[in-house]
Specification:
Blueprint: H1 11-22, H2 25-42, H3 49-68, H4 96-104, H5 110-119, H6 124-130, H7 135-162
Helix pairs in contact: 1-2, 1-3, 1-4, 1-5, 2-3, 4-7, 5-7
Length: about 160
């Protein structure tokens, strides 16, 4: 039985990953085109489904980070004085483009870790290996990424309501 060189994850999911890392439709499309062009030559040699997904993610991430080197995103600052203990966090209503724009401003490796975590392709152990972290560091990175993204989205929502 011959397996497909493409992983079962859809191209759309990989595109969303590239979009979250680049914050730009044009850049995400370029990264996907370059990665897909490489598929026929290399990914068919990877036998496992998880291995093919990891191959795609690594190549997309490398290209996204390389494309962003010229203009690194401004990283939001983490404010740890936010919600009081026991207080329920507020749920922000946001639009998809705002999420992608704010997600793009997260620093590395937080941005990649959170994007990969939410794609739900890999177990935590596989994700830690892919990002060259131990599981404890990955957990800390994911927690920091969530806080940074929440703070960034909250400030964007406040900025948006102030301009109305």
């Amino acid at each position: 039985m011959q397996t497909s060189p493409l992983p079962n994850a859809t191209i759309a999911e990989f595109y969303r990953f590239a979009l979250l890392l680049t914050g730009s439709i044009k850049a995400a499309e370029q990264v996907m085109a370059e990665t897909l062009a490489e598929v026929a030559m290399q990914v068919a040699q990877v036998r496992s489904e998880t291995g093919r997904q990891a191959w795609f993610v690594q190549h997309i991430r490398e290209r996204c980070l390389k494309n962003n080197e010229s203009a690194p995103p401004a990283a939001p600052r983490l404010d740890r004085t936010g919600t009081a203990l026991g207080e329920k966090p507020r749920v922000l209503k946001i639009e998809a483009f705002l999420l992608a724009q704010r997600f793009h401003t997260l620093p590395e490796p937080e941005r990649s870790a959170l994007a990969l975590f939410y794609l739900d392709f890999f177990t935590i152990a596989e994700l830690a290996e892919l990002l060259k972290m131990n599981v404890e560091t990955l957990a800390e990175t994911l927690a920091a990424a969530r806080e940074l993204l929440e703070q960034s989205l909250h400030s964007a929502t406040l900025d948006d309501s102030a301009t109305r």
